[in-house]
Amino acid sequence: MLQTPKPAQRCAARSPCSIGTSRVPRPRATPLSARSGPSSRQILCSAVEQSSAPTLPRSNNNGNGVAAELDEKQEVAQQAVAADPCLAYNLQGNDWTTSSLSVVVLGASGDLAKKKIFPALFSLYYEGLLPENFQVFGYARSKMTDAEFRDMITSTLTCRVNARERCAEAQERFLKRCFYQAGPYDQPDGFQALSGRLTEQESAKPRANRMFFLSIPPNVFLSATGNAADHARSKSGWTRVIVEKPFGRDSASSAELGRGLAQHLAEEEIYRIDHYLGETSAQAFHVLLHALGSAR
Q: Which residue of 23, 110, 200, 213 has the fewest C-beta atoms within 10 A of its own C-beta?
């Protein structure tokens, strides 16, 4: 049977804090390297792990995306965490034995989702890096049943991460956790229906965490995010939104997109990533290696 290690167990060996007899990992940031873009698997795993240790409340951002000054209570809280990083953890609220995780992929019928996101999610599951109680929901405008959705992504799931056995059994168990909801991105009805179906799957645990992965064109980022945040947000746990693909065309459009997201989400609820990050550098490095090889 596939064993699912808890986040605290996986990370305790790295710089743990001690609270009584419990050992809890020290909060850490996951930087985006400018030299090589992270894989979808790394992005998803990072978001799950970081979300298990929520950040302290921050003041709202202004229109230019520059953080406003923290008020006195927030400053006191940050000073306390600086003295004892373990205070940043809400252990009871982030115990995966009492929490579930729902990953919603917006744009589930697109190539990016089929070729990258769903294989990455299965890879995390296959390696035991997802909580015991999790489910994956696809959301897109295409009409599709749960069975048709599972058939669509079945061929994309591989066990190429290693040569471990029982891959077919793991795929079957993973697919049973996959569901689909059709609906538009610019209307609340589909997201309200999605939230209802999520609630049904999350009923086994008292705390439900929801992560939305935007595998959709940039021109529907704001409408989709707004509806997801306003009509499908978790009422008992945290909500996270991962914005995939280019974040705007230039500085002005990026700032505009940031302001739009801030109307529905707190800054710590947003993850901005670009799967083409570092592509130019990687290509240049490949040319350099080829040139060095030819010179020998």
A: 200
**Residue 121 scores a pLDDT above 90:** yes
Q: Assign residue 63 a region: left if phi > 0, alpha if psi is -120 to 50, beta otherwise?
A: alpha
- How far apart, in whole angstroms, are the C-alpha atoms of residue 240 and residue 103? 9
pTM of the predicted protein model: 0.66
- Torsion, Cα 74 209 159 138, to 10 degrees, reads -120
Where does 99-181 have alpha helices with state H? 111-112, 118-126, 146-154, 167-175
pLDDT in tens, 3-61: 544 444 444 333 334 333 334 343 343 333 333 455 555 555 555 555 544 444 444 44
Tens digits of residue pLDDT in 219-250: 898 999 999 999 999 999 999 999 876 677 78
Residue 199 tokens read as: 């609630």
**What would you measure as the largest C-alpha separation in the chain, in angstroms?**
64
> What DSSP state is assigned to residue 176?
T
Phi, psi of 100 (to 5 degrees): -120, 160
What whole-number distance in Å separates Cα of residue 269 and Cα of residue 203? 23
Tally the residues of the chain: 296
Give burial (CB, 10 Å; 0-12/13-18/19+) of 90: exposed
CA-to-CA distance for 193 and 182, rounded, in angstroms? 9
The C-alpha atoms of residue 291 and residue 287 are separated, in whole angstroms, by: 6
**With DSSP H G I counted as helix, E B as strand and the rest as coil, what are the percentages for the chain, rounded to 5?**
45, 15, 40
Contact, 269 vs 51, CB < 8 A?
Answer: no
CA distances, 204 to each of 36, 132, 222, 281 (Å)? 40, 11, 32, 46
Whole-number Å distance between alpha carbons of 149 and 151: 5
Digit-coded pLDDT (tens) for 52-95 = 444 444 444 444 443 444 456 667 766 776 666 555 555 555 67
